[in-house]
Amino acid sequence: MISDDIQEIAEALAASRRRLEATGGRAGSARRFAHLLDRVQRRLVRPPRIVLLGEFNAGKTTLANALIGADVLPTSFHANTRIPIRVFYNTVSSLELELTDRTRWPLDDTGLQLLGHGRARMLHVGLPVARLEAFELIDTPGLASGMANLEGANADAFGYASIAIWCTAATQAWKATELSAWHGVPARLRRKGLLVVTLCDMLNSERDRGRVLARLQSEAAPHFANLAMVNAAEIDELRRNPHLADYEERWIACGGRALDESIARLVEAVFEDRRRSLGRILGRIAAATAGDNGA
Question: pLDDT tens digits for 20-41?
Answer without folding.
Answer: 556 554 555 656 666 666 666 6
